[in-house]
């Protein structure tokens, strides 16, 4: 099964990124053969910024993305959204990569399920 998560909200301030990543991680745990892609758009691209420091006891979306990547998930970021926020490729969590709206369209067509957060 191919599942595409499209995430738009900022990584902190709402819990949409957190909940999208929680669900993506559980899907990979329940079905290791699943192909899970997370596409970060708008303010959600900030979720893949490396070296995040959150207070003890508070969730850290960078660590969640690293777990997703370690579980063979894919993390793509809207390049236009990155540029608008001044985020360079070298600032991303290892394994996350710049992408395009064309690649999002292709992933949408290929997906069995699309989840939007």
Question: Would you identify the regions where 5 or more consecutive residues have pLDDT less than 50?
Answer: none
Largest sheet: 5 strands, parallel
The spatial strand order of the largest sheet comes to 4-3-2-1-5
SS content category:
alpha/beta
Span between termini:
19 Å
> Helices and strands, in N-to-C order?
EHEHEHEHE
Overall outline:
globular
Q: What average pLDDT do the residues reach?
A: 97
As a percent range, the share of strand residues is 15-25%
The level of helicity is 25-40%
Number of helices: 4
What is this structure's SSE topology?
Elements: E1 2-7, H1 16-30, E2 35-40, H2 61-70, E3 74-78, H3 79-84, E4 97-99, H4 101-110, E5 113-116
Parallel strand pairs: 1-2, 1-5, 2-3, 3-4
Helix pairs in contact: 1-2
């Amino acid at each position: 099964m191919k599942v595409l998560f499209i995430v738009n909200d900022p990584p902190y301030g709402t819990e949409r990124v957190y909940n999208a990543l929680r669900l993506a991680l559980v899907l990979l745990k329940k079905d290791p053969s699943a192909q899970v892609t997370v596409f970060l758009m708008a303010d959600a691209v900030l979720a893949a910024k490396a070296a995040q420091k959150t207070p003890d006891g508070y969730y850290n979306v960078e660590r969640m993305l690293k777990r997703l990547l370690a579980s063979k998930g894919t993390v793509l970021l809207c390049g236009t959204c990155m540029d608008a926020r001044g985020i360079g490729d070298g600032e991303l969590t290892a394994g996350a990569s710049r992408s395009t709206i064309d690649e999002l369209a292709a992933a949408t067509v290929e997906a069995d399920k699309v989840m939007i957060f």
